[in-house]
Structures are given as C-alpha cells and as structure tokens.
Specification:
Layout: H1 25-38, E1 42-46, E2 51-54, E3 61-65, E4 68-72, E5 77-80, H2 84-91, E6 96-100, E7 103-106, E8 110-114, E9 120-125, E10 130-134, H3 138-147
Length: 156
Amino acid sequence: MQIKTLIDKKYTEAEIHVCKDILDDEVRYVMGELHNIFDESLTGTDEKGNKCMIRPVDIVSFYAEGQKVFAIDNKRKYSISHKLYEIEKKLGNSGFIRISKSEIVNFRKIKSMDMSLTGTIKVIMKSGYETYTSRRNVAKIKEMLIKNRGNHEGIF
C-alpha cells in the first residue's frame, strides 16, 4: 500500500482518495477505518444528563435494554436516541458486529472469547466489559476474524 501526501494551495480542505483496480478486503478495511475516524459522531446523553458527541471508534458496545439503546465506551455509558438497527445500518462495515438480537460490539475491542460455557460464549472486551453471544453467531464472528487476520490472534 502506498501513502502519499500532497500539499497544494488549491486544496482548502483535506481530501482522501483510495485507489485500486478492484474492490477487495484491503480497500474495504481501509474505508472502514477512515469512516471510523471521520464519520459524523453520534449524540448521546451521559449518566449525568449531559449531551455528548460520541465517536463510534471509541465505543465498545451498543445494546438495547428495555425500550432504550445504550452505548458503552471505556469510561462511561450513554443513552442513544437511535434504534439498534439504525446504528447498525449507519456503522455499515466499520468494525462492528451484531452478537445478539440486542447487542452490537466493536470487533476491534474484543480481547478474548470464552467458549467453555454450554450454549453461550462469553465475549471479553479489552476494557474489561463482558457480554455473551450464542453459538449460532460464531460463524459470523469467525468470518470477521478471517477478514481481519492478524489483528485478533488467540481469541478462540
């Protein structure tokens, strides 16, 4: 992969171009990373009632509880005004994966998975947050592991 920087007065704002002969996993990965960095933030409300701008790249998990959707980063929990399916659609292929009907996690923040429990798998995030997924989601998670080979060695 080549990275070039071009400084010219004709550019009044930064432009990023990803060029390749085919749309492959490398291009998808780079585009996902760029979207993580530059896409619009979500708005949420923290536990004190303050409105906050939340960058998806900082989020560990989005989950639904009751009729509300929450986001967790390494430090805080936020209430989000979007439905879980809306967040999933907005995030697209940006490193988030649905692990259950009520939760989407940031794949890059998974530390390990404990498969010793019967019927369920414990997902342990780098922040220490723990959640669960069923065995029927393992194929989807493994597929994401294969696409991001090298980033998550030793999870299974």
